[in-house]
């Protein structure tokens, strides 16, 4: 069985939701506090010296990181979570998958830990990243179909990113006011019965799982 090392509500939530949709069994290990010295960081660094989440320990003992790579691995086993090959939707899926991790993700990396990158301009760096992130979401909004999912009628792993990211900054009200398609796609994903437990455990929707 796959073991997912992560923290509720963090980027590991994306991998958890993807695995759940694909009906791939996994075990979750909570390493909250991994980003500070201590036992959780030690446990994670034994598998991933860079101490990133999600970190997946595969059934064969190998280690996988990076949500886009994990998404591609999942598609090998459950190809229905992406549009069919050789279609415009498939090419858009591939483009947006890489775009999200190459462009939006870094704004969290820099804004969440500004002290790693600057000794005197932490506040300015955070504000700049947050402002830039909004421009990225506005561009993404222009690429979405939202009928009812990001690329049309078919649910894809892009919708998982949107659903989880809507719970991050700039938060609910901003997305509702400025990116209505993005907001509506997340709402649609939140209604899927098979995702209720994993979304609650990651504080993405209200309530607690049993």
From TrEMBL:
SUPFAM superfamilies linked to this entry: GST C-terminal domain-like, Thioredoxin-like
The EC number(s) this enzyme carries: 2.5.1.18
Domain GST N-terminal positions: 1-82
InterPro entries: Glutathione-S-Trfase_C-like, Glutathione-S-Trfase_C_sf, Glutathione_S-Trfase_N, Thioredoxin-like_sf
One Pfam family named in its UniProt record: GST_N_2
Lineage: superkingdom: Bacteria
This protein's name: GST family protein
Gene behind the chain: gst7
């Amino acid at each position: 069985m796959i073991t997912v090392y992560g923290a509720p509500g963090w980027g590991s939530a994306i991998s958890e939701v993807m695995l759940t949709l694909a009906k791939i069994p996994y075990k979750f290990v909570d390493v909250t506090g991994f980003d500070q010295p201590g036992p959780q960081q030690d446990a994670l660094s034994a598998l991933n010296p860079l101490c990133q989440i999600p970190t997946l320990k595969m059934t064969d003992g190998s280690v996988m990181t990076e949500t886009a790579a994990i998404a591609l691995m999942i598609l090998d086993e459950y190809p229905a979570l992406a549009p069919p090959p050789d279609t415009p939707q498939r090419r858009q899926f591939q483009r947006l998958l890489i775009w999200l991790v190459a462009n939006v993700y870094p704004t969290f990396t820099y804004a969440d830990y500004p002290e790693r990158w600057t000794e005197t301009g932490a506040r300015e760096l955070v504000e700049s990243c947050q402002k830039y992130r909004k421009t990225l979401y506005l561009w993404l909004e222009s690429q979405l179909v939202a009928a009812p999912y990001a690329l049309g009628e078919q649910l894809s792993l892009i919708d998982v990113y949107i659903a989880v990211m809507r719970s991050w900054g700039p938060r609910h009200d901003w997305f509702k006011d400025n990116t209505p398609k993005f907001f509506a796609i997340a709402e649609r994903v939140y209604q899927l019965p098979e995702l209720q437990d994993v979304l609650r455990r990651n504080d993405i929707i209200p309530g607690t799982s049993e």
